[in-house]
Design a protein that fits this description.
By secondary structure, the chain is an alpha/beta fold. The termini are far apart. Bound molecules: adenosine-5'-triphosphate.
Length: 234
């Protein structure tokens, strides 16, 4: 069954600096939700808070309606939260297969296998199983990072700028993969992005973030409105 993810009025600090101010976001079950904003507005901080890699000072993250509290990242992964971090964080000296196997840590012994879906979505990973992660192109590494998150069979997938620095043909593959995960597997997807066209095509709903706050939420078609674009201009 598809699971919802909700962030309720969270604050996040780096020392004295407040990076998130009462941020609330809802990712509906089996839908793609995109959070857009310029560099440095707090998008990665939002995902770090959801993944549990940075503590929140206030507020709550709800996974399928249950508060995650202070649960550490590995427990969130076991519950079914997949996280594709910014910069991909591939292990350059491990092979593609070994990078995928790092996802096994979140699985019980009997479940430790690499799902075929990953190779259906990203056939290049199958061809490169024995190559080192560091030898892959940026786009291939992004596919590997998504594949690694899928190894844990997540119910909710959060992705930090999946199109960053990636060539258009691979961006299309990633978009198709996310649509498949939503439509065929009922996965709930929350992504943060700066690339408007990608979100307009893919997202069911969007949020706009500016200086640590959500300043708008609505349908992806609203991305063309001038008052919304104003928040996204550099
Ligand atoms: N580890 C950190 N220590 C101190 N300040 C930080 C840290 N990480 C982020 N910040 C600051 O918090 C704010 C939000 O950063 P964050 O990375 O969440 O934004 P972002 O929207 O994801 O930007 P980008 O697209 O550049 O990653 C910025 O002002 C940033 O400088």
């Amino acid at each position: 069954m598809a699971v919802s993810l909700a962030v309720e009025s969270i604050d996040l600090h780096y020392g004295a600096a407040r990076a998130l101010k009462a941020v609330s976001v809802e990712a509906k079950p089996a839908a793609i939700t995109a959070v857009l904003g310029r560099n440095g507005v707090g998008k990665s901080s939002l995902l770090r808070a959801i993944a549990g890699v940075h503590p929140v000072a206030k507020g709550e993250v709800l996974f399928g309606g249950s508060a995650l509290g202070k649960a550490p990242p590995y427990r969130r992964a076991r519950l079914g939260l997949g996280y594709v971090p910014q910069g991909r964080e591939i292990f350059p000296l491990l092979t593609v297969r070994e990078n995928l196997q790092t996802g096994f840590a979140a699985l019980k012994a009997g479940e430790r296998s690499i799902p075929d879906t990953i190779f259906t979505l990203f056939p290049v990973l199958k061809d490169m199983l024995s190559r080192r992660g560091g030898d892959l192109s940026g786009g291939q590494q992004q596919q590997l990072a998504i594949g690694r998150a899928l190894v844990t069979r997540p119910k909710v997938l959060i992705l930090d700028e999946p199109t960053e620095g990636i060539q258009p043909s691979i961006i299309k593959d990633i978009g198709r993969a996310l649509q498949f995960l939503r439509d065929e597997l009922g996965m709930t997807i929350l992504l943060v992005e700066q690339y408007l066209d990608f979100c307009r095509e893919l997202a069911d709903s969007i949020y706009i973030m500016d200086r640590g706050e959500i300043v708008h939420s609505g349908a992806a078609s609203e991305l063309d409105k001038p008052e919304i674009r104003r928040h996204l201009m550099v």
